[in-house]
Amino acid sequence: MKLYYYAHTGHKKGLDRLKKATALLKKFNAHGVDTMLLVNDFRAGLVAKEFGIRESVTIETILDIDAIAQFGDVVIIDSPEDDRGRLEQYCTDYKQVFRFAQDENDTSRYGETMIELDCDENDEACISGIVIDDIYFEEHEKVDRTLFFLGDSDADKTILSNADFFENEEMELLLGHYFYVKYEDDLAKIFKTLHEPEEYSELICNSKRVVTSSLQCALEARISGANVIFIDDSQQKNCSSMLLEKLQILTVDGFNKNEYKQIVLDNAESCHLITQKTEIIASKIINNFSL
Predict the structure, then answer these.
(1) pLDDT at 278
(2) pLDDT confidence of residue 131
(3) Tens of pLDDT, residues 280-290
(4) What percent of the chain has pLDDT over 90?
(5) Mind listing the pLDDT tens digit for each residue in 185-232?
(6) CA dihedral (105, 110, 116, 120) positive or negative
(7) How far apart are CA 183 and CA 27, in angstroms?
(8) DSSP alpha helices (H): ranges in the chain?
(9) How far is the C-alpha of 213 from the C-alpha of 161, rounded, in Å?
(10) Which tens digits make up the pLDDT trace of 243-266?
(11) Distance CA 44, CA 147 (A)
(12) pLDDT at position 269
C-alpha cells in the first residue's frame, strides 16, 4: 500500500496546498508510511524539496491520479477541480480516499473521508484541514518589520495595480515562487527591500507583522506569533471569517488603504492552543486507513 497526496498547484493557483502537503507528508514518512506527492508542475516539485519532500510526480489534473495510484492504495486530494465523476471511481478502487473540504458547505459525496476547514475542539473524529508545519510552532526571535506576501503567483500583476496601497508603508516584499524576473524590476520601484522566495519559512517565523492575501501564510504567521492582516480579495471562498476571528487575524477588504490605516496591531501572542498540531492530524488520518 502506498499513500498518494495530490495537491493542486500552478502559476495561477499558487502553492498554499503544497505547503500543507509537505507538512503532513513529513509526518506520514516519520510514521513509516510509504508516500508520494502529486503536483501539477515541475516547479512545485522543486519547491517541495525546500520544505523537506525530496520526491514528487507531476500530473496534469485530478483526472490523472489513477495513472499513478494503484488499486488498494490510499489517496489524499486537496483540489478545487471538477473531478467529472472520477472521484466516485477513486472511492471504489482505493483503500481509502481523503479529501480536503474546499468551502464550509463541502461534504462527502461518495464516502470519501473529509478533512474539514475547521473542527470543533471537542470533536475527536473530525480531521482538521488547518495544517501548519512544526517550524511555525517554535519560538523565534522577531524582527521589527512589516512583511508583505501576496502569494506565490501574481499573474495579473495585482501588486502593481495597487501600488498606492504600499506607498509610505515601509513594507518589505517577499517574492512568490512564480513571479517573473522582469516583474521583480517593477516591484523594486515600490519596495525598498525584496526577499527571495527561498527565504519564506525564515521570514514568516521571524517577522513581527505580516500582511498577506494567502490564507496559508496568514495562518502560519499567526501561529508563529506575528500580528497578521489578511487582504481579502474575495477569490478565496474557503476563507472562513470565523476561523480568522478565532485566530485573531485582522481582515481588510481588498487593497483598501483607508481601512488598512485604521487597523491597530497589538502585540500578538501565538495561538498554539487552538490549533491541532500536524502530528495529531496525521495520526488521525493514519488511524482511519489502518482500521
Answers:
(1) 92
(2) 95
(3) 999 999 999 98
(4) 80
(5) 999 999 999 999 999 999 999 999 999 999 999 999 999 999 999 999
(6) positive
(7) 36
(8) 16-30, 42-50, 86-93, 158-161, 163-166, 181-187, 200-206, 215-223, 241-246, 257-261, 278-289
(9) 15
(10) 888 888 999 999 999 999 988 666
(11) 23
(12) 63
Q: Provide the residue count of the chain.
A: 291
How far is Cα 57 from Cα 89, in angstroms, rounded to an integer? Answer: 21
Kindly report the backbone phi and psi dihedral angles of residue 115, in degrees, each rounded to the nearest multiple of 5, phi listed first: -105, 110
Chain CA centroid to CA 113, Å: 20
How many Cα atoms are found within 13 Å in the side-chain-facing hemisphere of 81? 22
pLDDT at residue 246, as a whole number:
81
Residue with cell 492575501: 213
Burial, 104: exposed, middle or buried (Cβ in 10 Å; 0-12, 13-18, 19+)?
middle
pLDDT confidence tier of residue 150, bands split at 50, 70 and 90? very high
Amino acid identity of 199?
Answer: E
- How many Cβ atoms sit within 10 Å of the Cβ of residue 216? 22
- Burial class from Cβ neighbours inside 10 Å (0-12, 13-18, 19+) for residue 141 reads exposed
Question: What are the strands of the beta sheet with 3-7, ordered from one edge?
Answer: 56-58, 35-39, 3-7, 74-78, 96-100, 113-115
Q: How confident is the model over 72-76, as a mean pLDDT?
A: 98
Phi/psi at 41 (5° precision): -155, 155
Do 137 and 148 contact (CB within 8 A), yes or no? no
Signed CA dihedral, 76, 82, 87, 90: sign only? negative
Residue pointed to by grid coordinates 521589527: 144
Transcribe 220-268 into DSSP letters: HHHHTT-EEEEEE-S--TT--HHHHHHTT-EEEESS-HHHHHT--PPPP
Band the pLDDT of 152: cuts 50, 70, 90.
very high
